[in-house]
Specification:
The protein has 233 residues and is an alpha/beta fold. The protein has one domain: Ribonuclease H-like superfamily/Ribonuclease H (Nucleotidyltransferase, domain 5). Strands 1, 2, 3, 4, 5 and 6 form a 6-stranded mixed β-sheet that branches.
């Protein structure tokens, strides 16, 4: 399974108001292992960054003046991403900017040219409801070292996101089971007819029943008499 962790930096917050992409980074994992086959581009947007955006990424117009335009890197980027699952933290933001850049070139949407886009922010919100799920917060929660992150940079952020994702989904390693063949399968297991067994179900003692009833009363009191088992009785 080929996964690309993608991040961008931009001149501001609104592609519809003329803001542009200035940095794109992609970090590749294959079967959840880093390959080193990454991509990193600085892009000359043809305009200055907003002051607030500059405080975030620190990428100046002076630094970008000799960098290629998006058009010059688009073909290589799309060829690299073709068919892969692309994982982005707060995907609507980055994908919105990439869609705008592609539309200016008369190209199809970003999503139509990759396998699928997965929003890791949405994943984090499902896993950690009610908590802060910024990349920094996830790094701290999942013990991913972010000591080198003083300013936002697309390449470092993409690398951190890959680490965060692996930590968020670590339990999935156990699900990666290779299919067996006749040659690799072990000796056949003898089937057992479970109908020949009688299962004993012990009854609760009076003390256990009383403790259970007490717990139900406490739950009923805490809910203001709205527990389902009371209403259905």
């Amino acid at each position: 399974m080929r996964q690309i962790f993608l991040d961008t930096e931009t001149t501001g917050l609104s592609p519809d108001n003329g803001d542009r992409v200035i940095e794109i980074a992609c970090v590749e994992l294959f079967n959840r292992k880093p390959t080193g086959n990454n991509r990193h581009y600085y892009v000359n947007p043809g305009r200055d960054s907003h002051e607030e955006a500059l405080k975030v990424h620190g990428i100046t117009s002076e630094f970008l003046k000799d960098k290629p335009a998006f058009e010059a890197v688009a073909e290589d980027l799309l060829a690299y991403l073709a068919g892969a699952d692309v994982l982005v933290h707060n995907a609507p933001f980055d994908v919105g900017f990439l869609n705008k850049e592609l539309s200016l070139l008369g190209r199809p949407t970003f999503v139509s040219q990759v396998g699928q886009v997965i929003d890791t922010l949405a994943m984090a919100k499902d896993l950690f409801p009610g908590k802060r799920n910024s990349l920094d917060a996830l790094c701290d929660r999942l013990e991913v070292d972010r000591s080198g992150r003083t300013l936002h940079g697309a390449l470092l952020d993409a690398e951190l996101l890959a680490d965060v994702y692996i930590n968020m989904t670590r339990g999935q390693d156990a699900l990666l089971i290779e299919p067996t063949t006749k040659e690799s399968a072990g000796p056949a297991m003898e089937s057992v007819d479970l109908r020949s067994f009688t299962l004993t179900v012990p009854a609760a003692s009076e003390q256990e029943l009383a403790a259970h009833e007490d717990l139900l009363k406490q739950l009923d009191k805490a809910s203001g008499g709205k527990t389902v088992w009371r209403l259905a009785a």
